[in-house]
Records
---
Amino acid sequence: TPEKELPRPGDVLVHADGPNAGQPVQLADIQPERALFAYPKGKASNGKEVLKNGVDRNQLIVAKFQPSELKAPTDVKATDQGVIVYSRQCMHLGCAVLIQPYTPANLKVAAVCPCHGGAYNLTAGAQVVGGPPPAPLAQLPIKVQGDQLVVDGFFLSLPYDISEPEFVSQKE
Ligand code: FES
């Protein structure tokens, strides 16, 4: 269904929750070290505008750091003004990660999985810093246009549920 399609270039990120749910995320909404959650919204393959909230991999973390804080292996070309976006879908068994401090790795903010304790360093390409995940979270290329966040490519690594037909068709 259109709601399950992958983010495409040109989609706009909208708040996933809170008082502004469904409204475009604005640059000023993103506080340093306070990530927020978003979904992509844009044209689906049927040509209609749709909120792509029908699948876990499209729940997104939007975080903002000083550009100089973003370290390898972050794909900095896929960030803009220090804004970096990842799928929330844990690469272990697919739970939605949360944002919180992670003291074992001395991180003020990290993506931490409530299921088995997987932890990802958001400033270093979502590299795994704890628990069982075998791979980093999938980064989504982004650019700032006006004060909105616009998708600027496809996920840079495979989202968890790669067997979904929508994924296969969009990678062809
Ligand atoms: Fe995230 Fe297991 S599903 S650590």
Note: Confidence is low (pLDDT under 50) at residues 162-172.
---
Amino acid sequence: MSHQLLKGKKGIIFGALDEKSIAWKTALKCYEEGAQIVLTNAPVALRMGEINKLAEACGNAPVIGADVTNMDDLKNLFEKSMEHFGGKVDFVLHSIGMSLNVRKGKHYTELNYEWNAKTLDISAMSLHRVLRTAWDMDAINDWGSVVALTYIAAQRVFPDYNEMADAKSLLESVTRSFGYHYAVKKKVRVNTISQSPTKTTAGSGVKGFDGFINYAEKMSPLGNASAEDCANYIAVMFSDLTRMVTMQNLFHDGGFSFTGVTAEVIEQMEKE
Ligand code: NAI
């Protein structure tokens, strides 16, 4: 059901790879809530062609390629988006994550540092790059809202999350630091949403993901939050209903982050 929460708003959505992507569900939700959007992803991801289906479902939204580690691509993206909208944007979703060491099977204690630098750039400093580009071009309206997606491995150890734990810590730090400056200068809000494990391409790359997602399900009083639930939360964060929220890491995890143990987990342990 639509509440037209985002009526008249315009935004850029990074990271819709396929219909499982959190960004995909978010694009559909924002469109349903009355927003106009521009979709973007890395050129190599666009070649899959899937995103064109999403663009069509979002009122023929433009699709503009941008590697998030390339400043020229980001400038072009914001320029073209502002041209298309006839003005500045109101929201940006950063839904991007990639770990080269995980992909290549390197253990955390044996990181390849060149790959690690790339991982931190794609998954964390890219938020700085996006905010910096928007800042330099004055591309976000006052009270605009930027959301990036993160995971609780930034605060607590999940051994197989590997170098992505460090990337997410950095991402959350950039959110606070840039969030401060953008709030003071332009009243632009920057937050991260810390999402439950979710079956997507990026999510499934984590070793032992099936065991992990079942464990989180049992450890969350409400159960794991789905990608659709996450899209709903993001839409609220883009709306004017949350205008005083900034520089926060917001847990969206069915209660997992504040649960010590659940009856279900204890029962499971008693079986052993
Ligand atoms: P996904 O695989 O659908 O999305 C990741 C996106 O990052 C893809 O669209 C990919 O093309 C894009 N990307 C990678 N390198 C890029 C580059 N150089 N330039 C531009 N885009 C690039 O997976 P998902 O799960 O939807 O991931 C979205 C975000 O949610 C990520 O930040 C992820 O870490 C985060 N997250 C995911 C969880 C999960 O369990 N799936 C849990 C918590 C957070």
Note: The domain at 10-270 is CATH 3.40.50.720 (Rossmann fold).
